[in-house]
Amino acid sequence: MGRNRFVYPEEVRLPLSDGDYIDVKKQLNAGEYRKLLYDQFKENPEGDKVVLDHSKIGISKLLAYLLGWSFCGRNNEPLPYHMDQPEEIRRAAIDSLDTDTYRELIAAVNGHEAREDEALEAKKKDRSTAVSSSTT
Amino acid sequence: MFTELVMHGDRDAKMEATISWSWHTAAVCRAWHVRKNDKGQWSLIAQVVRADPFKLQQRPLRFNAPRKGGHWSWPVQAVTVVDTHLTAALGPMEC
Predict the structure, then answer these.
(1) A47 in contact with B at a CB cutoff of 8 Å?
(2) Which residue among A47, A48, A97, A130 has its CA within the 20 to 30 Å range from the CA of B69?
(3) Hey, where are the domains in chain A?
(4) In this predicted model, what pLDDT tens digit does every residue of B33-77 receive, in sequence order?
(5) How many domains in chain B?
(6) Complex-level ipTM beyond the 0.90 threshold
(7) Residue of B nearest to A10 (CA)
(8) Would you list the DSSP string of B22-87?
(9) A97 and A105 in contact (C-beta within 8 Å)?
(10) Nearest CA in chain A to B17
(11) A23 compared with A55, residue with greater pLDDT
(12) What are the residues facing B43 on neighbouring strands?
């Protein structure tokens, strides 16, 4: 039997400074990954090639991964972020953060993505080792 | 308490309800009718605007109907889609 090739929704909680946290998708599925790639590019008016839009890289990744956070407003009222909200509302919520927090979120999500990629590579290696040892 | 209850949304996009699988949208419905019968069983009939067959096969699914300030929500026990016609058996309503 082949391996499972589908992504089932799993959440991972990433700790931040000052006791805060964010919840993110463990892994993007193909549709989410394709949207993330597409969202980071813009049409080039001078040619038929699309170009990377550097202003969209961080925010696109956050919109792709982020499921929720523990952040409160200045009167300690919870300011929820969840996937039921339209994308423009979620984008506006992220855009309202201070720049330190924004950078911290990007670093946390990049770190999570790197760890997941490593884990996937390790799994691939395990599978290829298992196949080669079963054929010898 | 009600012995029987019927709730419905019309064909208006503002009244669109969804069937969700975790954070994914498995189906978007309009013209939905939710009914609780005298045995306390909940059922759903709706017109599907769009549906993802893979996600509709997953569990757990939830049916989320819009209301002022939020959603009513039911666990989906079984769902069938034929063309654009969706029927489902629902568990007890959870607000």
Answers:
(1) no
(2) A97
(3) 11-135
(4) 999 999 999 999 999 999 999 999 999 999 999 988 888 999 999
(5) 1
(6) no
(7) B22
(8) TTEEEEEEEEEEEEE-TTS-EEEEEEEEEE-HHHHTSSSEEEEEEETTEEEEEEEEEEEEETTEEE
(9) yes
(10) A84
(11) A23
(12) B35, B89
